[in-house]
Amino acid sequence: MSEPLLIVDGDNLAHRAYHSTPKTVTGKDGLGINAIVGFFSMLSRIVTEEKPRGVFVAWDTLGIDTYRNELWPPYQTGRIFEDSIRTQLNMLPDICRAFSMGVGKQAGYEADDVMASAVVAECAAGGSCLLLTTDRDSYQLVTDCVTVLTPQRGTRELARIGPLQVVEYFGILPEQVPDFKALSGDSSDKIPGLPGIGPKTAAGMLLKAGTLENALKDWTKPEQVELAMKFREVARMRPEVAVTLPDGPPNWQAGAEALRLLGADNLATRLSAIS
Question: For residue 141, which phi and psi values (nearest 5 degrees)?
């Protein structure tokens, strides 16, 4: 397969679309569709530019705890979604299916794990992947055949994150990202890390020791070591979800009809013209 598979962090893109597209964008019966319109506007541009062999979109399951919450109950607590974005997030997977995009979603797992599962499946089949997300947790998936695409402020050009860029950004290898987060924490996910260890210290420890186990083998507080191992499991993506990958590019005409039924006529007309 010469063209890569584009794997999309669906919730990540939908939230960005929701906050960048005016909430005055509504469809039939006044239903808010700004996240949906923004989602497919942004995604269609990236697909036409990157020309992937197909598109696979990974989703969270709203309102259901994951194994991460069981490991660390404070994980991602305090996040409150408006009703409109919740409604649109529940609608988006079926609309993606109308476009003949692959869709992955499983209770107990996050979109991260679904993306990892798609990466493993595509690479095992001899393909390569582009991951569309702003979540740096995805850097742990980066290899010579897996590149993260992420938006940059002030430009339409996407940053391309390969192994070298992960080293430049974190000072560690991609496979060390979960170990790094276990040590230094991640405030956005409510992972505190270990006391007194910031990003530079964590990177230095892993550069010298290689693994979290080696970095903490002489640590004098066993309860902190146990916590760090738990934090690593929270940060680590699990490629355990069964996924069905798309066998071709999006069907823009069929998807446009699904959007037209919602009242997104202008976007539907624009997408139906994509060849």
Answer: -90, -10
Residue 171 tokens, joined = 């000072």
**CB atoms closer than 10 angstroms to residue 261:** 13
Strand partners, 130: 6, 147
d(CA 217, CA 196): 17
Angstrom distance (rounded) from CA 142 to CA 162: 6
Write down the residue that tokens 């794997």 correspond to: 7
Q: What is the pLDDT of residues 68-79, one digit of tens each?
A: 999 999 988 878
Q: How confident is the model at residue 1, as a pLDDT?
A: 60
Q: pTM for the complete prediction?
A: 0.96
Strands 54-58 and 155-161: unpaired
Report the distance separating Cα 124 and Cα 221, nearest Å. Answer: 41
Fold of the domain built from segment(s) 5-163+237-272: Rossmann fold (3.40.50)
169-235 belongs to CATH 2.30.42.10: no
For the chain, how long is the longest CA-to-CA vector? 64
85 contact partners, CB below 8 Å, separation of at least 6:
14, 15, 18, 35
* Helix ranges restricted to H, 99-146: 111-124
Dihedral of the CA atoms 16, 62, 147, 231 (nearest 10)? 110
The domain limits of the chain are 5-163+237-272, 169-235
